[in-house]
Amino acid sequence: RMMAAVMNAVLLQASLEKIGVETRVQTALMMQEVAEPYIRRRAIRHLEKGRVVIFGGTGAGTGNPLFTTDTAAALRASEINADVVLKGVIGDDEYGCPPRSNGSAPFEHISFRELAARGTSKMDMTAITCCEENNIPVVIFNMLEPGNMSRAICGDQVGTLVDQSGRIT
Fold this sequence. Notes:
EC number: 2.7.4.22
Protein name: UMP kinase
Strand order of the largest sheet: 4-6-7-5
GO molecular function: UMP kinase activity
CATH superfamily of the largest domain: Acetylglutamate kinase-like
CATH topology of the largest domain: Carbamate kinase
Family: Belongs to the UMP kinase family.
CATH architecture of the largest domain: 3-Layer(aba) Sandwich
Radius of gyration: 16 Å
GO biological process, one term: 'de novo' CTP biosynthetic process
């Protein structure tokens, strides 16, 4: 699993660099040939220089096998003062959020508290809690839908926004 996560990070890096986006991969695992070690200040410096930083490896590069990638991503997001966490999921089933009781369209906006109260999500609750405590919104979206990744990165409405206010629409 650790190697697969790093391989995915390197693949994402190659894809982004192919379209001209300067990118760095950081991981807690020592793999100097393919990634630099995670150092918070270095990650922030890369971001200040306009680079994309991808955290790869078990637990998004924490090196802790007890952390899910979601929780580690939330932890790294809090460490670098990220504006948002993007959670790409496979499929369109409510973008990883619990279904509405009346079976209508997926949530576009829900609060952390409401999501926790409903009890199910494709993002683990430790990650959701970390994002809530650090006031980092989460966007859960179908990453297989063409264009969704670009729209999510650009801040367009895609999937479900989970934040403090959570007006359900």
